[in-house]
Design goal:
The protein has 6 helices and 12 strands. With about 220 residues, the chain is an alpha/beta fold. The chain binds S-adenosylmethionine (SAM).
Length: about 220
């Protein structure tokens, strides 16, 4: 499938949109999942680069995202009127979904968990609650976590949340019974970033792509 990456962005740090960091291999790997999914749920919209990409290219998908920052929320809501952006934090977004979109629990859903880091000057990291909720409620899910440490390739940069690395150790007990896949490519295909940024795919399905390694 061909897709468009918008040249327009509201992010003051970039000159063009950079969904999934603008990493074209990442996008290529998850394209089929996006085509098959009925819901896209993102935590941390920021300026909507990834959300705009999903909204522009996948008419099959209902996109829901949350952004608590007043300024970003206002900008992004005007930028992507077709998406459902809620001005709340994660994990509150999951209460919102339970109340308004519980039908998604039985539909193929792709998650982009990107809300780790600081919010309001405090370290706030809802990752465990997010993963736990998804696993307990969704039948058919693909969880993508951004800024995740890759144990197979140290070229991929990852975030520290406080003094804890964004890595499998933090959620290990929650994902023992599902499949965890790491990217194993090395080419930098983004026009916006100087580095490969780490990510991980966690799913209750088997995922076949030779650019990904199944974690044992
Ligand atoms: C890295 S940016 C998101 C980029 C965006 N997901 C994309 O791919 O284009 C992270 C955003 O998460 C927001 N954020 C931080 N903590 C949050 C939380 N607990 N819930 C929701 N959003 C949060 C921040 O305000 C910031 O705008």
């Amino acid at each position: 499938m061909s897709y468009i990456i918008s040249k327009e962005t509201k992010d003051p740090n970039y000159k063009c949109g950079s969904p999934f960091h603008g990493d074209k291999i990442f996008i290529d790997i998850i394209l089929k999942k996006l085509q098959e999914s009925e819901y896209f749920v993102e935590t941390g919209t920021a300026y909507g680069d990834t959300l705009k990409f999903v909204n522009d290219n996948f008419k099959n998908i209902r996109a829901i995202s949350c952004e608590p920052d007043d300024n970003r929320y206002e900008i992004v809501t005007n930028f992507i009127p077709g998406a459902e952006i809620v001005k709340i934090t994660s994990p509150e977004i999951f209460t919102y979904i339970k109340e308004n979109h519980s039908d998604s629990f039985s539909k193929k859903t792709i998650f982009w968990l990107d809300a780790h880091g600081e919010y309001n000057g405090k370290v706030f990291w809802p990752l465990r609650e997010e993963v736990d909720f998804i696993k307990k409620n969704y039948k058919d899910y693909c969880i993508l976590i951004d800024d995740f440490k890759n144990p197979y390739n140290s070229q991929f940069k990852f975030d520290m949340v406080g003094n804890i690395p964004c890595s499998i150790e933090y959620i290990h007990d929650l994902v023992q019974d599902v499949n965890v896949y790491y990217p194993n490519y090395t080419e930098l295909t983004t026009e916006s970033w100087h580095d490969l940024i780490g990510w991980v795919l966690i799913t209750n399905e088997n995922f076949q792509d030779d650019r990904m390694i199944l974690h044992k």
